[in-house]
Amino acid sequence: xxxxxxxxxxxxxxxxxxxxxxxxxxxxxxxxxxxxxxxxxxxxxxxxxxxxxxxxxxxxxxxxxxxxxxxxxxxxxxxxxxxxxxxxxxxxxxxxxxxxxxxxxxxxxxxxxxxxxxxxxxxxxxxxxxxxxxxxxxxxxxxxxxxxxxxxxxxxxxxxxxxxxxxxxxxxxxxxxxxxxxxxxxxxxxxxxxxxxxxxxxxxxxxxxxxxxxxxxxxxxxxxxxxxxxxxxxxxxxxxxxxxxxxxxxxxxxxxxxxxxxxxxxxxxxxxxxxxxxxxxxxxxxxxxxxxxxxxxxxxxxxxxxxxxxxxxxxxxxxxxxxxxxxxxxxxxxxxxxxxxxxxxxxxxxxxxxxxxxxxxxxxxxxxxxxxxxxxxxxxxxxxxxxxxxxxxxxxxxxxxxxxxxxxxxxxxxxxxxxxxxxxxxxxxxxxxxxxxxxxxxxxxxxxxxxxxxxxxxxx
Amino acid sequence: xxxxxxxxxxxxxxxxxxxxxxxxxxxxxxxxxxxxxxxxxxxxxxxxxxxxxxxxxxxxxxxxxxxxxxxxxxxxxxxxxxxxxxxxxxxxxxxxxxxxxxxxxxxxxxxxxxxxxxxxxxxxxxxxxxxxxxxxxxxxxxxxxxxxxxxxxxxxxxxxxxxxxxxxxxxxxxxxxxxxxxxxxxxxxxxxxxxxxxxxxxxxxxxxxxxxxxxxxxxxxxxxxxxxxxxxxxxxxxxxxxxxxxxxxxxxxxxxxxxxxxxxxxxxxxxxxxxxxxxxxxxxxxxxxxxxxxxxxxxxxxxxxxxxxxxxxxxxxxxxxxxxxxxxxxxxxxxxxxxxxxxxxxxxxxxxxxxxxxxxxxxxxxxxxxxxxxxxxxxxxxxxxxxxxxxxxxxxxxxxxxxxxxxxxxxxxxxxxxxxxxxxxxxxxxxxxxxxxxxxxxxxxxxxxxxxxxxxxxxxxxxxxxxxxxxxxxxxxxxxxxxxxxxxxxxxxxxxxxxxxxxxxxxxxxxxxxxxxxxxxxxxxxxxxxxxxxxxxxxxxxxx
Lengths: 460, 544
Ligand code: SF4
Ligand code: SF4
Known about the structure:
Chain A has 460 residues and is of the alpha/beta class. Chain A contains 17 helices and 14 strands. Chain A has helices spanning 25-33, 47-61, 74-79, 82-95, 107-112, 116-125, 147-162, 182-194, 227-231, 248-258, 270-285, 291-311, 322-334, 349-359, 376-385, 398-404, 428-450, and strands at 17-18, 39-44, 68-69, 100-105, 134-138, 173-177, 199-202, 238-242, 261-265, 315-319, 338-344, 367-370, 390-393, 408-410. Helices cover 45% and strands 14% of the residues of chain A. The mean pLDDT of chain A is 98. Chain B has 544 residues and is an alpha/beta fold. Chain B has 21 helices and 14 strands. In chain B, strands 1-12-11-10-13-14 form a six-stranded mixed sheet, sandwiched between helices. In chain B, strands 3-2-4-5 form a four-stranded parallel sheet, with helices on both faces. Mean pLDDT of chain B is 95; it is low at 536-544. Strand 1 (17-18) of chain A pairs antiparallel with strand 3 (113-114) of chain B, so a sheet runs across the interface. One iron/sulfur cluster sits between chains A (24, 26, 45, 49, 52, 106-107, 142) and B (82-86, 151-152).
C-alpha cells in the first residue's frame, strides 16, 4: 500500500496539511506571464521558489519554461531585495533581451515587505529598462489563496498596468483566459473563428507551451499576446472572462480602468458551460452561432444518449481547481453521474456556493470542501468511508487510485505522468467529447477487467 | 563508428561568452569558467552567490536539507513549516525509492506534510500552528521521529522551531522531534542545506543506539540517495560480497539505522558534497575512517568494491569480490559491445548537482565518449580541485552563518580503527583516507569546467560543440532537446535507472545508445524543408 497510514476514521486537523490539493501563488503568476509574447517571468525571492516553479511547469508541459530569479541571500532578506531586483532587471535585458519582464513576489519578499511598484519605477527612472521594453509586476504571496490566485493576480496586474483606452472603439470582444491548457485556448480561438467573432484573447500560451520540435530553441516563441495588443484592451466593446477564480479579477480591473463592461462565465467544460459561453460571445460580438457549431453540439449529445447507460448513477470523486471542477461537476450531473466527493485546496466561499447549487438537488449528501483543510488525505478518507467508481483529478490522485483500486482520470493541474492535456482540449463540445470518451474508457475497461467470463461482452 | 569532431578554440569561446555580459557580471562569471589542465587544476570560483537575473540551475537551502538529505528516509515524518508551495514541490519529485520490509512497516515517503501557513501566521507568528501540526502528526501516525523544516518566511518572522521540537520530544516520550532552520535564503544553493541537515542528523540522531549489530564488516554508504533504485543494486553487491550495510545516507533508509550508524567499521562516501560533514564528524567523534568511492561506471564499481575488500584485508572477502566483479564485468562487456558502435567518439556535457557531473564521466568514458564540458550546480572548490585546497578556501559572508559543528572524541565510544602504520600501508595499496581528488584531474586538457552554469553559457556551449548528449535536470531538459540535442536528466534519470553498480552501467549504456541513435531526431525536418537545406543541420550528426 502506498498510503498505508491513511485511516478510515476522520479526525479534525487544525495544524497539519497532508497531501495538499493546491500549491502556491507564484507558479500561477509564472504561467500567466508566459502567455504574453516575448515575456520572461521573474521570481522576486530566493532562488528555490523559481527553481521549483519552473520544474513543475516543465514536468506538466514537457516544454522549456524560462524564468529568472532575484536569488536572495541572507543579506537581501534582511535589507530588502531592491538591489537584487534592479540588478536582475539590468542583467536580464542585457543578456536575454525580452520584450517584457513580469515580476512576481514570493513569500519571502512579501514578508520582508518589498514594494514591487516602487522598485520597478526606480528601475525605469535609473534607465535600467531599455526604450520600448516593459516591466510588469504582481504581488503573489502564497500564504493567501493558492496557485489559482497567483494566476489571477498576474493577469489582473498586467491588465491594470497595460490596458489603455483610445479614441477609437473597436468592434472586438476581449476574452480573459482563465487557467487553461494551450489546447483549450486553441479551441476557444477556433470556436470564436467559427462564430466569426472578433476577439482579443489573453493570456495566450498557444505556440509558447506547445511549440514544435525544430532543432532550434526560441527563448521567446512566436505565441503570446503582445504588450501592444494588451494596450488596446480598453478599446474593445466588452469582455468575457472565463473562470471566476482565475480570470474575473482581470475583467474587473479592466472595467475599472477603461470602463469596458464584462460578463463572467465559467471555463466552457461540458455542454451547459459551453452553451453559455457561446451565447455570451454571440451576444457580445453580435454574431450568430452557426449551424456547424450546433452540429458539433449535436454530435456530443448523440454520443451521450448512445452511451447513457454506462454513466448513470456512477459515483465520482473530483478534486482540482475551482474554475475546472465547477463546470466539470455540472457536466457530470448532466451525464447522470454522482459527484459524491468534491474537493479543492483553493479556498473560496463562492466555490462552496456554486457546488452546493449544482449538487444539493441530485447528490444531497455530497462531501464538499475547500481551503486549507481540504487536502488529499481527507479526500482519501472520504473515499474509504464512501467508495467511488471513478476518481478525477491531477496526477497526485494516482496513489489513492492504486491503493483503493479505482479507475482514475487525469484532469487539471498538474499532470506530470502523462501527455496529451496540452494538445487535446477539454473545453467546448469537442473537449466534452474527449471527456466523455475518457470516462467511458475508464468505466468500460474496468467492466471488462472485472466481468466474470460468461459476462465478458463483445459488443458494448 | 568513431566520429571526427570539430573542436572550437576554448579560450576564444570563453571570451566570446563573457563579451555579452555587463562588465561586473563578466568579471564574476569569468572566474567560474575554467579551461582545464588536469595536471595542475586551476582555481575555480565556486559556492558563491548566483547573480540575480542570470538564469541559474540552482535551488535553495531547504531543497538541499529536506529535499535531498532528510527526504528519502521512509520512517521520519518531515513537516515543512511554511506556506504550502515549498512542501508541495518537494513531494515525491526526487524519486528516492524505498522498500519497507513488511506491509506493516512505516513508510511516509508518499506523504507530504506542511503547516500551510496563512497570512495570520505570518503576521502573528506560526509557532502555535506548528506545535499543533506536530501534535496531530504524532496522534495520527505515532512515528519514531519527526523532522521540522523551516522555509523562507519562517526565519524572518522568528518562529522558534527548535523550541517547539524540544517541547514535543519531551511531551511524547517515544518520538524524537528535531528541527532544521534551512530557510531557502541561507547560503547560496542547496549546499548550505546539506550542511545544515548533516549537522542536525549528527546532533539529534546519530549515536543514540550503541548496540553492536551482527556482521563482521560493517559500513555506511554516505551520499547515495537511491534515485531510480541505485541503492538496491549496491545492497545486492554488498550482500553478496559479505559486507554488512548498516545505513545509507539517505536512500531506502530508516531512522533506527541512522541511530546506530556510528558503530560501523568504515564509511564509504559517494556524493562528497552533500555528506562529507557527517563523514568527518563521525571520524572525529567515533574514529570511523572514511574513503571516497564511486559506484557509477562498471570499472569504478569494481575498483570501489576491491578497495573495500583490501581495507578489511579479509581473504574470503577479497576472493568473493573478485568473483563477483569478474562475473558482472563479463555481463557488462556484452552490453558495452552492443552500445559502443553507436556511442564511440561522441561528445558529452554534464552540468548537474555536486558529484554526478564527475561520476558519470566514468560511464561516458566506458562508452568511448568524450566529456568536453562539465560543472556542478552547487559544489565547492574541493569538489573540483580536490580536498587539498580546503584550507585555502575563503568563507564568505553568505556561508559563514552556516554552523560548523565542533566535535570532540566520545570518551566511551571513540575507537581508533587505524594506526599511523596502517594508514601508510593502506596508502601503498592505493587506499587514501578522507581524500577526494575532485573532478578536474579526471578531465582532459582544454575541456571546459564551469561552476553554476547559466542558461546563456549553456546555449553558447551547445552552439559551439553540438554535443551528442547533454546531462542536466528537468528545467534544462526540453530547452536543450529543442536545440536538437538529447538530454539525460541526472537528477531523476528520466524516470529510468538504476545507473549505479554493474546493472546500472548496463542500463546507462542502453539508454545513451538509444538516445544518440533514436530515429525521432531524423524526423525533425519535414521532407519539403530538407530539399531547401543548403547547409547541414544539427540533426545530421545523429546518423549512426
Ligand atoms: S516560499 Fe512561498 S513562493 Fe516560494 S515555493 Fe514556498 S510557498 Fe511558494
Ligand atoms: S521559499 Fe525559500 S525555502 Fe521555499 S522554495 Fe523558496 S527559496 Fe526554498
